[in-house]
């Protein structure tokens, strides 16, 4: 009887631990957990300076096997919480990471496409995580939610065509043939 109780207790603890675990492995990222943490403003993977102070949020080690999921979730055009300290950005950029027509606003779907492009290129695709329309006269003006969905569709078509191949310098950019580019 004691043996059964011990086994049951071990199984229950294992289930409880796996269900309550909200840690994030930056080297083997789970896209859904990452997105949920971004939406909640709870992403907590940082580079720290010598004084132990947070300097910037670290980008998860997204790879090509994450791209389809990032593109799928990029249909969410809600705004991220305004707490930028928990959003991984390109640490080389000294600019404010928002388009001029959306001060303080990052759209989740657009940001996830930026993460997908990060995985495709193996590094940051641009200094800032927003798209612009090449036909727009105002530099730095971001695109609309409808245009983000069009860009997402271009990524999805591109991924369906090239995702299972050897992506290299000669592979067209996902936004080729669209008026959009990373700022």
Summarize this structure as a short list of keywords or feature phrases.
single chain; 183 residues; mainly alpha; two-stranded antiparallel sheet; two-stranded antiparallel ribbon; 5 helices; 39% helix; globular; disordered N terminus
Percentage of residues in strands: 5-15%
Q: Structural class, judged by helices and strands? A: mainly alpha
Order of helices and strands: HHEEHHEHE
Please give the radius of gyration in angstroms: 19 Å
Structure described in brief:
The chain has 183 residues and is mainly alpha-helical. Helices cover 39% and strands 7% of the residues.
Provide structural commentary.
This protein has 183 residues and is mostly helical. It contains 5 helices and 4 strands, in the order H-H-E-E-H-H-E-H-E. The protein has a two-stranded antiparallel ribbon with strand order 1-2. Strands 3-4 form a two-stranded antiparallel ribbon. Helix 3 runs antiparallel to helix 5. The protein starts with a helix and ends with a strand. The relative contact order is 0.13. Residues 3-21 have low confidence and may be disordered.
Topology:
Layout: H1 2-20, H2 31-40, E1 46-48, E2 54-57, H3 64-73, H4 108-121, E3 131-133, H5 145-162, E4 180-182
Helix pairs in contact: 3-4, 3-5
């Amino acid at each position: 009887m004691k043996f059964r109780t011990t086994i049951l207790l071990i199984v229950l603890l294992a289930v409880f631990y796996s269900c309550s675990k909200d840690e994030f492995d930056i080297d083997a990222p789970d896209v859904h957990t990452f997105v949920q943490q971004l939406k909640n403003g709870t992403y907590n993977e940082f580079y720290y300076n010598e004084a132990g102070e947070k300097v910037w949020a670290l980008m998860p080690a997204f790879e090509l096997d994450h791209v389809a999921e990032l593109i799928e979730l990029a249909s969410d055009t809600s705004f991220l919480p305004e707490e930028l300290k928990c959003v991984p950005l390109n640490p080389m950029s000294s600019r404010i990471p928002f388009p001029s027509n959306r001060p303080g606003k990052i759209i989740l779907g657009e940001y996830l496409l930026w993460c997908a492009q990060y995985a495709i290129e193996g590094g940051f695709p641009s200094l800032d995580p927003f798209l612009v329309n090449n036909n727009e006269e105002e530099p730095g003006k971001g695109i609309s939610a409808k245009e983000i969905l069009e860009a997402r569709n271009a990524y999805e078509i591109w991924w369906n065509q090239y995702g299972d191949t050897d992506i290299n310098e000669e592979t067209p950019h996902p936004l080729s043939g669209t008026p959009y580019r990373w700022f």
